[in-house]
Amino acid sequence: MTNRFPETPEFTGALYQPSRVEADVVDLEVAGELPGALRGTFYQVAPDPQYPPMLGRDIFFNGDGSVTAFSFKDGRVSLRRRYVKTDRLLAQRREGRSLNGIYRNVHTNDPRAASNNSTANTTVIKHNGVLLALKEDALPYALDPQTLETLGVYDWQGQVTSATFTAHPKIDPITGNLIAFSYEAKGDGTPDIACFEISPEGKVLHEIWFQAPYAAMVHDCAITANYLVLPFIPLTVDVQRMRAGGQHFQWQPDLPQLFAVIPRKGSATEVTWFRGPANGFQGHTLNAFEQDGKIHVDMPVTNGNVFYFFPQADGYVPPPESLASSLHRWTFDPQAPSDLVEPRALNDYPCEFPRVDERYLGQPYEHGFMLAFDPERPYRDDLGPQPFQFFNLLTHYNLRTQESDSWFPGDSSCFQEPIFIPRSAQAPEGDGYVAALLNHLDTYRSELVILDAQQMAAGPVARVKIPFRMRMSLHGSWSFDA
Fold first, then answer.
1. Is residue 184 part of a domain?
2. Contact (CB, 8 A) for 114 and 90
3. How many distinct structural domains can be found in the chain?
4. Residue 296 to residue 235: CA distance in whole angstroms
5. I need a surface site. Which of 150, 211, 248, 373 has the fewest CB within 10 A?
6. Is the per-residue pLDDT at 2 higher than 90?
7. Is the per-residue pLDDT at 482 higher than 80?
8. Interatomic CA distance for residues 218 and 212, integer angstroms
9. 77 CA to centre of own chain
10. Using only C-alpha atoms, what is the Rg of the chain?
11. In angstroms, what CA-CA distances link 431 with 219, 368, 381, 396, 455?
12. Residue 265 maps to a domain
């Protein structure tokens, strides 16, 4: 049977048409000059479905995890790309078709589908000698960092017993510890939360379990020297809805933006809860820090439901043009008499996929790097509507001066998530390079661009040509050579 993907926005165009490529390309062509300081690997992962959706439709987030490693050394760069050999993917390959139904709803799967529903498609991060491919509905898969071959499900030798594990753990730059959490930690629809601090050698040093007021999406987190902060997006879970064939998540416009502030070395009884305005979508965190007894968390916030594929109960989704977002600062005072918090806007333009100089993660900082969108910039009408996740600026934002320094790549291109790479271990904060994949919507091609973080508007110092199109990815990480 011929594989044909549906002609829907989730499976067409330069961003979302499946790529389905596994490859090794040595010595990629480079325009410009790669900085000699780049000695290491940029890992990233994309949801890239191997087979057309079983139900004839699907969402972007349900694609099979495909990991790419860009390895830099001596002014050269090579590429390796492999699928994560999840139980789910292997079952599909045996049958020669998709066996999975609605996103994160096992009740809609084919009986021959794997019991482990993970796509391992959201983040890749190196830890304890392995590369972890993470998806927040299950434990991660471990990969060999050099070959990208799949080693299997990773539970830290039985130390992590939760059913799920975050796709956004943080590594404390002072201790090297991995700080992580699980939501729906005892299975679909459970309000249980588990938090872990794991040593660089893979030993679980501290663990906290507690229950949230309800089961909801907790996509990202923030850390400080003493706290872990979990933002609860008002996308709630209902197992009865899932059993009836409905979506895992549903938008709840009446719910507040909820935050759990957890002492990293504390207990469940010390968890403090804070509430923000209702009908707000907290995006990915940029950074957090403590100052004068208070906890500050910086992250993009949108005034409504970004995920059109998870509508509210009556089916309503806000028109994209009605949504406004910007970088906000939430300030939590553990001693405050009220649990109500109002965030403060730090800039005035849409932004997402923020990254920080990770040597300053959890500490006072000055520099942020992110994707941004300027609707006033030119866009070619012949390319059709701007796709979901369209960002036309790569931006360095200085939180001290509130100045933005951005590069606009032209009227037919948009970015994937950036990463920041320090010029050296001793370089000042923010002194280094920003790397990001750039998709060209007109030519269906991709390239990896490298910019000087202090001179973003000047554009790339190097452009790495990729001989095939890279589907839209989610997240990645940088690992220096040992």
1. yes
2. yes
3. 1
4. 24
5. 211
6. no
7. no
8. 11
9. 24
10. 21
11. 29, 12, 37, 11, 10
12. yes
Burial 162-183 (b: 16+ CB within 10 A, else e): bbbbbbbbbbbeeeebbbbbbb
- Percent of the chain that is helix, strand, coil (3-state, to 5): 10, 40, 50
Q: Are 256 and 277 in contact (CB under 8 A)?
A: yes
Query: For 81-96, what is each residue's pLDDT tens digit?
Result: 999 999 999 999 999 9
Q: Shortest CA distance to 23 belongs to which of 71, 73, 79?
A: 79
Please report where in the chains the tokens 């972890």 appear, as a residue.
132
Among residues 410, 333, 399, which one has the least CA distance to residue 374? 410
Q: Return d(Cα 359, Cα 345) in angstroms, integer.
A: 25
The per-residue pLDDT for 37 is: 86
Residue type, 207: E
How many angstroms separate the Cα of 471 from the Cα of each of 352, 437, 445? Answer: 18, 10, 10
- Domain enclosing residue 161, as ranges: 155-346
- Measured CA to CA, the distance from residue 477 to residue 475 in angstroms comes to 7
Does residue 368 have a pLDDT over 80? yes
What is d(CA 288, CA 223) in angstroms, rounded to the nearest whole number?
6
Q: Is residue 379 part of a domain?
A: no
Model confidence at 367, pLDDT cuts 50, 70, 90, reads: very high
pTM, 2 dp = 0.97
Structure tokens at 244: 């009836």
**Residue range 7-18: mean pLDDT, rounded:** 96
What percent of the chain clears pLDDT 70, i.e. is strictly above it?
Answer: 99
Q: How far apart are CA 142 and CA 154, in angstroms?
A: 6
Nearest Cα residue to 77 out of 68, 86, 90, 64: 68
Three-class secondary structure of residue 319 per DSSP: coil
Give the SS3 label for residue 433.
strand
Nearest CA to 311 among 247, 242, 238, 258? 247
**Among candidates 131, 161, 127, which has minimal Cα distance to 65?**
131
Q: Distance of alpha carbon 157 from its chain centroid, rounded?
A: 26
- List the one residue out of 7, 5, 30 whose CA is nearest residue 18: 5
Q: Is 245 inside a domain boundary?
A: yes
Triad 256, 231, 116: Cα angle to 5°: 115
